[in-house]
Automatic annotation (TrEMBL):
It comes from Nocardia macrotermitis. The keyword Transport applies. It is an enzyme of class 3 (hydrolase). This is Putative ABC transporter ATP-binding protein YxlF. Keywords: ATP-binding, Hydrolase, Nucleotide-binding, Transport.
């Protein structure tokens, strides 16, 4: 579970996002949506302790998050598919992460199998496609058998089979009790798999509601999450702050 209170996030001296209160539940897939510049990636980085908030607190599975400290043992994250040494193989990369986090080396083989990369595990990452790099990042996030899982745009670069695979993976994890928080722009996929929606815009949370409730409140002429999103968030010219992802 993720619990946020009185959070203020800043970038280059400007306030990017203010979150008075947000709880992301266990056993559910929560999608974080909003245009570029609304603070999605900045929020995920703060939850992971990569950056420090200007104010406020974040707790993950009852553990207070402190920036630049050790990652909580129950937290898995994949925030950047470029965060690899291209000279490494997938197996070496995952072994390095496992060692850094004090995890058993045997988990590497398990997660390689989970993401269907066992047969490519000893190929250098420089020769991986974007979709394969996404799978390596997801494998790294799964090494700790997370109670809370954060993913930033994990669908980018995946083909049709890959999108279906991650959809089913996230559903299995949520059904097993994992707190899953995913930032994405792909609203069609959100409609297929979401339990809960958080919409960011204008430096704040515009909506924090179950997906079913949002869809049951569609207005006249509205047929999709995209329609609901545009009504809630307003025209695109009003959405982006232009200072953070």
């Amino acid at each position: 579970m993720i619990d946020i209170r009185d959070l203020t996030l800043s970038y280059s001296g400007a306030t990017v996002l203010e979150v008075p209160e947000l709880s992301v539940a266990d056993g559910a897939i929560t999608y974080l949506i909003g245009l570029n510049g609304t603070g999605k990636t900045t929020l995920l980085r703060c939850i992971c302790g990569v950056i420090a908030p200007a104010a406020g607190t974040v707790r993950v599975d009852d553990t207070p998050i402190r920036a630049h400290r050790a990652t909580p043992a129950t937290l898995g994250m994949h925030l950047n598919y470029r965060a690899f040494d291209p000279r490494h193989t997938a197996r070496r990369h995952l072994r390095w992460i496992a060692r850094a986090r004090g995890l058993p080396a045997g988990r590497v083989g398990d997660v390689l199998e989970t993401v269907d990369l066992t047969r490519f595990a000893d190929r250098r990452l420089a020769h991986y496609s974007l979709g394969m790099l996404q799978r390596v990042g997801i494998a790294a996030a799964l090494l700790c058998e997370p109670r809370t899982l954060l993913l930033d745009e994990p669908l980018n670069g995946l083909d049709i089979a890959g999108i279906r695979w991650i959809r089913e993976l996230l559903r299995r994890l949520a059904d097993a009790g994992t707190c899953v928080l995913v930032a994405t722009h792909l609203l069609d996929e959100v409609e297929r798999n979401a339990d809960h929606i958080v919409i960011l815009g204008n430096r704040r949370i515009l909506t924090d509601r179950p997906f079913a409730d949002i869809m049951s409140d569609l207005g006249p002429g509205e047929t999709s999450l995209e329609d609901a999103y545009l009504r809630i968030a307003g025209p695109p010219t009003q959405l982006t702050s232009g200072v953070a992802p």
